[in-house]
Amino acid sequence: MRTHLPTTIPERPRERLLAHGAQVLTSAELLAIILRTGVKGCDAVSLGHRLIAHFSGLRGLLSADAQTLLGIHGLGAAKTCELLAINELNRRALEEDLKSGQALNQPTHVRHYCAARLGHLSIEHCLVLYLDSQFRLITSEEVSKGTLNQASIYPREIVKAGLRHHAAALILAHNHPSGVAEPSQADLSLTRHLKQALALVDIRLLDHLIVTGGNAISLAERGEL
Q1: Cα–Cα dist 115/210, whole Å
Q2: CATH code of 181's domain
Q3: What mean pLDDT do residues 100-106 have?
Q4: Which domain CATH number covers 76?
Q5: pLDDT for 207
Q6: Based on the domain organization, do 66 and 153 belong to the same domain?
Q7: Is the separation of the CB atoms in 47 and 35 below 8 Å?
């Protein structure tokens, strides 16, 4: 008489996470936990793989806007809202770090925050981080949005906003959608003019970051300030 051994059922992503920790799961499995269900002929893990491939990675997926996500087969309103919420929670967590500690002592956090805000955008955006006298984040504001190659940034508007927020210092950041991190002559000129304008009202320009994808280069570290 043949004895049939019990078949071991593979652990599902949620079970593996609880038993072994989130770090052992693949990105697609983590997405599957969030998505919960797949679509016809495609389970949640397979859907996770498809989404990561479609957006060329997690950063592209988690940075996509609502309209883009809703246009993807398998992502209805509920799943779209879940993905948008995750990205916003990540941004707020990074922001909390900058509000509770000195930006000068957290250059990595500053870069991650700016990359999360700007790294995925297909046209140039400019972001300003307004800091108090202890270099803690007061608030951040987008001050311009331009074409693929240029954003219109007016130093006087940044100075006015700095005074309105009672800022003692600020950090400027903008993205290069081309992926080329090297500062242009326009970037360097803007940095000089903004530094001079801010000095007139006793506000310090700490840095100008150029964001490409998930990275950011510092003009202060390159001696351009």
Answers
A1: 9
A2: 3.40.140.10
A3: 75
A4: 1.10.150
A5: 95
A6: no
A7: yes
Q: Write down the pLDDT at residue 9.
A: 47
Please state, in angstroms and as integers, the Cα–Cα distance from residue 88 to each residue in 45, 68, 136, following that order: 23, 16, 20
Specify whether 35 is located in the same domain as 116. no
DSSP state at residue 106: -
What is the domain extent for residue 64? 13-89
59 neighbors 51 (Cβ within 8 angstroms): no
Residues 154, 103: Cα–Cα separation, whole Å: 24
Residues 23 and 130 in one domain: no
Q: What is the pTM of this model?
A: 0.77
Inter-CA distances, 85 with 47, 70, 78, 147, 181, Å: 19, 14, 11, 28, 29
- In angstroms, the Cα distances linking 34 to 27, 66, 134 are 11, 16, 38
Name the most confidently modeled range: 11-25, 80-94, 159-173. Answer: 159-173
80 and 144 belong to one structural domain:
no
